Amino acid sequence: MAVSLHRRTGAVAFFYWLWDGLDRTIFTAIKFSFPARFVSPFGFLGMLTFVVFVILGISGALLMFYYQPMLDRAWDSVKFINDEVPFGFHIRNIHYHGSNAMVLLAILHMYYQYFSGRYKIRNEILWATGVILGTVTILEAFTGYDVIFSERAELAISIAASLTTSIPIAGPTIRDAMFGSGFSDFVLRFYAQHVFLLPLVMLGLMAVHFPRFLVFDVPMVMAIGGAILITGGVFPIDMGFKFEPTVPPGITVPEWYLTGLYAFLRTQYDKFVTGVLWPGLFIASFLLIPFIDRYKKFSWKDRPIITAFGITGIAQIMVTTYWGFYIPSDTTIPLVERLVIDPVFLYTVMILLVPLGFGFSYMMIKLAKESERKAKLAKDKGPKKVATINLSQKWINWLIVALLAFQVFLNIAAYNAALTGMKNISLFFIGIILIVFAGFFHLYRYGLNQAKNAPPPPPIHEEKPKELPQSIPTSGKLPEEKSVDESKKETKEIAPQITPPKVQADLGVGTNTIPDLGSSDLKKL
């Protein structure tokens, strides 16, 4: 009786039923695929950004149960979530570090598409929506840490209000719409933008930006979740200081993705030029890249000018980001002098970075291209065999056992840390558990992929032909040392190689010649 190995019962049958029911909906207009082997993580940056967006949506919805969007209760409600609500500390850390991860992943995804030239495959709309989506992501993160209304949030809000006011004509109207009439209702307006307006815009952009196929790599999803938890365990977010109108604010800086803009504002130059015009030109240049790039190839080495400009832009961002963080520690210097950056010095450095960064990058790209050409020539002339490292079955089994043991240990450690109140340690251990699970899952996938490969055929050894015997016995007796079967086999092998004897009529040549038989006797016959 045959037994079927493909029966669908329980949860498996339910998920298949659900998937079949969604087959006619818009949900399956985007095809989901799960790779059976390891693919470069750079190809999953867009998918990971979407996964972190989902994590932020879930954690943010849980925080909404206790947050109070009022001026005099915002900071206290967050402190209550952090200290009193069960698992509130964990959820808040996941939400905060998840927002930073989403901004970082969006930036990395954009630059990966830039240097790989993916926008050249007639993806101008996807590129434009991606750049806008990255900008909205930064705005979403900005409004998120402002609703706490700490001293840091007050600094960011004051800068944002002054920048909005500096916009010609439409500036005051935008400021009134975003901030309201002042401190009395701006927290509620920022809260509405953070939880409803901006996420709705992001979902609309994602609907246009996402391609037809989304590739979900389970180990990569677990790895990014573990990285967020580990970061929350190593760097738990603090509450900061509650903003008090009667108390002068201390020295603080905005989040890392805004410190570059903060460095320009600290030059005390025109706010519209430094805070609106420069960032606007930077975003506009990214939007126009697909229409400027006329190279036929996709590799960054084959597009030296575009690549050099991209590297120069990254260098300027890194320099201004560090400059925005840097504040002299000498307390004897007045606070205003410590915060103000010399505009001549800053803009001179930024202007010099353009030719230096572009020239150095362009030269290095050319050298890399030439080295690649020489390496290809050497490879064509050299040996073709490539060295590989293959783990034996024994080592794979030991590695699986070690991963399982480590997984059990980390679960027990995380549980004990949670019982003892070491909240950040529990986040750290849970993050490591997820990363170990990602490695274990990838190892399992690697084993399945290797099992599908057919084993190599055995080596073929060429047998030497047997030498023919010099004489064939004519008697009916077989040699005593050979059996009947062996004799038949040998006869079959030798028989095709024996040529039939030729009849020599009147020359008297043959194997059975009679000496007295002549030509006259043949006539009588």
β-sheet strand percentage = under 5%
* Unreliable stretches covering 5 or more consecutive residues: 489-495, 503-525
Report how far the terminal alpha carbons are from each other: 79 Å
Our Rg estimate from Cα atoms comes to: 39 Å
Fraction of residues in helices? 55-70%
Mean pLDDT: 78
Strands ordered across the widest β-sheet: 1-2
How many DSSP-defined strands? 2
What composes the largest sheet? 2 strands, parallel
Please write the string of helix (H) and strand (E) elements.
HEHHHHHHHEHHHHHHHHHH
- Overall geometry: globular
What's the arrangement of secondary structure elements?
Blueprint: H1 11-21, E1 31-33, H2 45-63, H3 74-83, H4 88-116, H5 124-146, H6 151-166, H7 171-179, H8 186-209, E2 213-215, H9 218-234, H10 259-265, H11 271-292, H12 304-325, H13 335-339, H14 343-381, H15 393-419, H16 423-452, H17 484-494, H18 519-524
Parallel strand pairs: 1-2
What does this structure look like?
By secondary structure, the protein is an all-alpha fold. It has 18 helices and two strands. A two-stranded parallel ribbon has the order 1-2. Helix 10 crosses helix 12. The C terminus is likely disordered.
Can you give me a brief rundown of this structure?
By secondary structure, this protein is mainly α.
Keyphrases for this structure?
mainly alpha; 18 helices; 525 residues; two-stranded parallel ribbon; 62% helix
